[in-house]
């Protein structure tokens, strides 16, 4: 009986020793080894990488215990150098653990090709929006005589006409030939003095000219609504679309005392 108790006592002591050792190992693992391995409580501030070259970024991140990962989707900005960082994730200023991967999008070495849109017969304002949406740059604007005011007549790339659908690099500069609204047709300025203002306007517009300012002047010598002066004067050579200013009579009011 005493031998049994002695044996059980020894077993109990061994179990206690084993449990103590196990507890100690677990304490060391969770309190010392694991925090040291995962850098528990330590963080690194993500730097702002945008605009820096790929090689500079890789060296910079390595020195700070961060890893660089290139995003498979590259971008393209014509004004930026090839292989500079355009975007990054996480954003600058974020707190991350060491060895965290920083994903970056690089500017492509070569511009992607896009199809040239059709800008002919499009108002200049709309043409500029279309170019921007396609990633193209509006270049020089050359005005030529044409009745279409601010309407695109030709689209040019590197000095040559470029047709719709032609492939060009994104970011290319497109020059536009635009109408000045004047036209190149020469006509003689009609005489509208003495006409009714409505008839005068009808003749001016029908001649391919445009109405300018209408100034009313007081007079008691001609009927109300009669054109008494015009500028430019009659007989002058005019271009299509040019403005004509007229002065129209209105009766002066008599003041009775």
UniProtKB/TrEMBL annotation:
It holds the Pfam family PASTA. The chain crosses the membrane at residues 12-34. InterPro entries: PASTA_dom (IPR005543). Keywords: Membrane, Transmembrane, Transmembrane helix. The keyword Transmembrane helix applies. CDD domains: PASTA_pknB. Signal peptide: none annotated. Residues 41-108, 110-180, 183-250 form the PASTA domain. PROSITE patterns: PASTA. This is PASTA domain, binds beta-lactams. It comes from Cyclobacterium lianum.
